[in-house]
């Protein structure tokens, strides 16, 4: 199996960076003579103007960055971004990077999306939103074009100003992880805590009031959930707002858990969200984030109160 390592040293590469007539100078196209790839970069406020370029009217990839990153694929960037403006995939988007090539087709961008998503997660520069995707094995002969594109994407993205593989950003990410050490240590005990799976309404009576209890909040868009952690116990607090739906393609367990909570009257509609009507103990902060957001989320999405 061929492994993609975006942090491996890249051979010196000539980059061409150009602006687009009629568009703000912050909208740029980055290319290299050795590749058919081209990357468009723009602030999110100019995403619509970038997406309107003919270069991105067909099959392409895109990377959204803010405090988190999201990698996606599309067969037309403009309509895809209209969808994202209607339902933002992240609480904040600062930049968009669109990746196109005349050689792209549906199979190619599907494979590249999965590999890039995995690689950005492993790089650890910023959290990645979205469900994990199946990463296929690549064959050196059959997938020669894909491997060539993968080798050139990291330096092209860096030249475009995309930091998802930039090791200079890693120390800040490591400091953030260290600052969240109590969260990570607790979340690492999935399956060995007081609640192994599902939820439990029974937990120590003084847990929420104890001075030894740590309190956290998760805020994403209009979603706001609170949790309390002490020893092996993690409690998702009454009044927490959950997203209205879970991604059933990857979060079947979360969907079933929510359905059962609704049946028991523990979840009620609250506008475009669902409100938890009682305190419940869950296996971990990671599990609580997944239940609240309806998708995979790292424990670092919780902020200490």
Low-confidence stretches: 169-192
- Tally of discrete structural domains: 2
Number of helices: 8
Strand content: 15-25%
Taken from the alpha-carbon principal axes, the silhouette is elongated
H and E string: EEEHEEHEHHHHEEEEHEEEHE
> What is the spatial order of strands in the main beta sheet?
1-2-3-6-4-5
Average pLDDT confidence is 81
- Percent range for helical residues? 25-40%
Biggest β-sheet description: 6 strands, antiparallel
Q: Got a strand count?
A: 14
CA-atom Rg in angstroms: 21 Å
Q: What do these coordinates show?
A:
- The strands form three sheets. Strands 1-2-3-6-4-5 form a six-stranded antiparallel beta sheet.
- It is elongated, with a radius of gyration of 21 Å.
- It is α+β, with helices and mostly antiparallel strands and 305 residues long.
- It has two domains: 16-171, no CATH class; 180-304, no CATH class.
- Helix content is 29%, strand content 22%.
Summarize the topology.
Blueprint lengths: L15 E4 L8 E4 L6 E6 L3 H5 L8 E6 L3 E6 L2 H10 L8 E6 L5 H18 L20 H16 L10 H10 L1 H7 L26 E7 L2 E8 L2 E4 L4 E3 L8 H12 L3 E4 L2 E4 L3 E3 L2 H9 L9 E2 L1
Antiparallel strand pairs: 1-2, 2-3, 3-6, 4-5, 4-6, 7-8, 7-14, 8-9, 9-13, 10-12, 11-12
Question: Which descriptors apply to this entry?
Answer:
five-stranded antiparallel beta sheet; 2 domains; alpha+beta; six-stranded antiparallel beta sheet; 305 residues
Q: Could you write a compact summary of the structure shown?
A:
This protein is α+β, with helices and mostly antiparallel strands.
């Amino acid at each position: 199996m061929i492994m993609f390592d975006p942090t491996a040293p890249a051979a010196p590469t000539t980059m061409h960076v150009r602006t687009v007539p009629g568009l703000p100078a912050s909208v740029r196209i980055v290319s290299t003579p050795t590749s058919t790839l081209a990357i468009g970069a723009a602030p999110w406020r100019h995403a619509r103007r970038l997406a309107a370029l003919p270069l991105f009217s067909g099959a392409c990839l895109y990377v959204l960055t803010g405090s988190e990153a999201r990698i996606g694929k599309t067969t037309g960037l403009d309509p895809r971004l209209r969808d994202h403006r209607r339902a933002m995939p992240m609480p904040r988007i600062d930049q968009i990077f669109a990746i196109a090539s005349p050689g792209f087709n549906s199979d190619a961008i599907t494979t590249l999306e999965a590999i890039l998503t995995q690689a950005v997660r492993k790089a650890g520069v910023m959290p990645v939103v979205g469900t994990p995707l199946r990463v296929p094995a690549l064959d050196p002969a059959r997938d020669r074009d894909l491997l060539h594109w993968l080798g050139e994407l990291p330096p092209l993205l860096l030249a475009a100003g995309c930091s998802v593989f930039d090791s200079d950003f890693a120390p800040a990410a490591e400091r953030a992880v260290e600052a969240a050490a109590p969260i990570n240590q607790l979340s690492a005990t999935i399956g060995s805590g007081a609640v192994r799976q599902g939820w439990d309404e029974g937990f120590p009576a003084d847990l929420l009031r104890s001075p030894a209890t740590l309190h956290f909040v998760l805020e994403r868009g209009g979603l706001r959930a609170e949790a309390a952690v002490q020893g092996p116990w993690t409690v998702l607090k009454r009044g927490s707002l959950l997203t209205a739906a879970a991604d059933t393609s990857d979060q079947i367990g979360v969907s079933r858990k929510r359905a059962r909570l609704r049946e028991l009257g523990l979840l009620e509609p609250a506008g475009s969200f669902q409100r938890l009507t009682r305190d419940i103990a869950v296996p971990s902060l990671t599990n609580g984030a997944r239940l609240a957001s309806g998708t995979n989320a790292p424990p670092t999405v919780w902020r200490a109160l």
